[in-house]
Structure formats: structure tokens, C-alpha cells
């Protein structure tokens, strides 16, 4: 396990050495979650604030409607029993105190009194022709927000040319229904204009109040200014956090990209791929995956280079012997000597052919296993068939192979031909090192998790320091009585490669009973 592996609950990645590294989904937020929160928060705040302010403005206008209705009704009652002089005085007084324009119409609908005509106007509509840029921007923002929240369109407020009750729809309804009528208009500067029409007495007179509710617009704009300020602050913070996140993402990615380019250019030996052990997010996971991949690539390149060198060395020896024998043949006249040279040449040709076959087989294992379809295989049946076939071919010489099984049924997933090759190689090795007539013991065990095939011989055994070397390519230490060149030194190396391609293992150890000899343990995951 790499030193910077960490615990998690969601995502795992294999590491060099057989361990796994996991990406935490609990204690820390992933980059995806952080980026989403940072970018969505300002938009959510802005959208929610816009709808809240529109609702707030509607609530203010509704409250003002209630106030306008009450004011109109109270004023109408006060005017109903007063003299003309008192009515005019009340119109002026209420208009100044409430900031309204009050107009009274007689039973024929003619204008009887106007607070603005009786005294100085209590308010003036804003002339937008001389507005400053900030006022123009405020109106543009009002229209934009209304469009976003799909606010209802409001009729523009326009003073009718005819100063009669019939020019005001709300006065017409008030006269017909004898009830107070409230209407909302919009002045050209975006401020609401609220009119209230109420019947005065029983003789058909009516009252019209007009209020320019600039305070509602001022309140809403102040709230919007506060919201916009908050949003700008959040956006600024979001931008800073986004830049920070961008740096935390881009900087290591650039380092990884530079390292990958150097590896692609063949300079992997001088490349130190950053592992970023302090990061537990996707970038750290990627960095360690690239580092592990580079390490695996280096190991593969070293293995290829070493294999090529070993192949050249192993083939060079029989080629030199073959060349010497062939060059000597024309100069030798003695029949026995010529026969001996021919035997040497034939032996060397067979040795080269065996080497080429073994090398070709070893080089195809990874490619074949990556494309192979795994099948359910009974290892007990497979080993029994192999033992019977070897006895029929007399490949066990005079050795008796004793097979024992225990545990569950030894079912595995694998490629039958390849697993057969492993067992054949293990039996070949045991036959080579066992003394004449000494039995070879094969034990098959399934503990529910792993299927183990243990092959034990009665030979000299393998020293502990050499138990790993026997699986190296072209490592061949053979018995003295065996002819030189009968083995390529690739058998156990091929067997281990097949075992590892099946997610298993192949190791060498001493006999568990303490007797002389060696045991080769072949383990596979149980199906």
C-alpha cells in the first residue's frame, strides 16, 4: 500500500503493490460539490431576493390600498355634512397633512373643488427629463426586475383633459355602486400612483384622492440596493473562491501534464510525478494514479529491457555453439567426430527452438489474458486430468503423484489452457528435482475464499534467499544429472505471470512437514 493511501467510503483505485486508495465522500467535500456550491449560491441568493422584494412591494401596495380606502371614506363622511367653506378647508388641510390631491365633484360630475387649486400643491410628480444617471439606472433596474418576476402590467397615470367625474373610471364605478374604489397607476418615473374614489353623502357627489406613493418605491429600491450590495459581495467572494479553486485545480494539472509530456518523450527516468499526498480530492487521486501509472510503466519498460537482454544472452550461447559446430564440420574427417558435431548442432537447434517457443509464449500471456473470457473451472478435475495424461505419456518418469483434496469444491474462474500450463510447469519442476521413485504430493484446498494447489517434491529444496529468484526469467538451476539446455528457465516465470493474471499468486516455500524438498503454492480466488 502506498504511504499516502487514505480511508473512504465511495471510490477505490488500485495502487502499485496491490493496495487500494479510496476517495472520501464524508469528511470533506469533493471538488465537484465545492464548485457547485460556490457558483450556485450567488444565483440562488439573487433569484430568491428578487422574488422576495417583489412580494414585499406587493404587500406595501396592499397596505396602502387599505389606508387609501379608509382615508377616502373618512374624508367623504367629514365632507358630507359640512358647508362649502368647511369642505374647501378640509380638502386643503387633509391634502397637506397626507400628501394627497383631493378633488370633489358634484352630482352632475362637474369639478367642485380641487385642493391643488385652493392652495399650493402638497406634492409634485417627478419630471424624468432632468433625471440623473443613477435615477435612470434605478428605473431601468425596476423594469428589468419586473420582467424577471413577471409582474403585472400597470396602467400609466395620465391626467384627463376634461375635469369631470366621467373622465375617471373609478369615480364612475363609485357613483354607480355607491362603494369606495381603489385603483393603482404607474407614473412615468416608475413610482406608484394610488387613487381612491368614494361617494360623498346621498346627493350624488363624489371624492377623488390621488397619492404619489414615492415612499414605496424608495423603500423597495433601498431594499434592492441592500440586496444588490450583498449579491455583489457574494459574487466577489465567489470569484475569489473560484480563482482559488481554479488554482488548486489548474496548477497540479499543469504539473501532471508536464510530467506526462516528459514521460511521452522518453525521459521518464528524470520525471518525478507529484503524488500530492496532502490532497484527498479528485486531483490528489489523479496525481497518485498518474504516479502509480508512471511507476508501472517504468517497471514494464525495465522488464522489457531486461527480458530483451536475457533473450539475447540465452540465444547467443546456443548460437555460438551451433556456429562452432557448423564451421568445424568441413574440416573434420573423422566420422565419430563429425557425428558428435552433428549431434551438438541438432541439440543447439532444438534448444533455440524451445527458447523461441517459450519466449513467444511468455510475451503473449498479458495480451491473451486481457482478451480472454473467464470460465468456471474445477481445479480438482483439471489436476486429475493432467496427472492421468502425464502418466499416459510417461512424463512423470518413475514418480508417483499423490493427490489429496479438502475443503469446498475447488471452483475458480479462469482460462483452462493457461491454468493447465501452470500445473504442468509445477509438476515438471517437481519431477526434475525429486529423487528416483520419490512420490510427488499435490494438495488441493478451498477455504471458501481461495483455492490452493500445493505441489511438493522430495528434492534438495530451495534456500530461503533464493525462493523469489526461481521465478525470474531465465533463472535455471537444474539437477546435475539433467542434460544442459533441456529447460529454458522460463517455466516458473510463465507460471507466476499466469497466476497473477488470474488475480492469484505463486510462491515457493519449504515443506510443511519438515522433510527435505520444496513446495510451490498456487493460489486463486474461489469462484
TrEMBL record:
Residues 247-302 form the HAMP domain. Its EC number is 2.7.13.3. Signal peptide: none annotated. It is found in: Membrane. The chain crosses the membrane at residues 31-53, 227-246. PANTHER family: SENSOR HISTIDINE KINASE TRCS, SENSOR HISTIDINE KINASE YKOH. Residues 310-527 form the Histidine kinase domain. Residues 1-22 are annotated as: Disordered. This is histidine kinase. Keywords: Kinase, Membrane, Phosphoprotein, Transferase, Transmembrane, Transmembrane helix, Two-component regulatory system. It is an enzyme of class 2 (transferase). The lineage of its organism: Bacteria, Pseudomonadati, Pseudomonadota, Alphaproteobacteria, Sphingomonadales. The keyword Kinase applies. It catalyses: ATP + protein L-histidine = ADP + protein N-phospho-L-histidine. InterPro entries: HAMP_dom, HATPase_C_sf, HATPase_dom, His_kinase_dom, HisK_dim/P_dom, HisK_dim/P_sf, Sensor_TM1, Sig_transdc_His_kin-like_C.
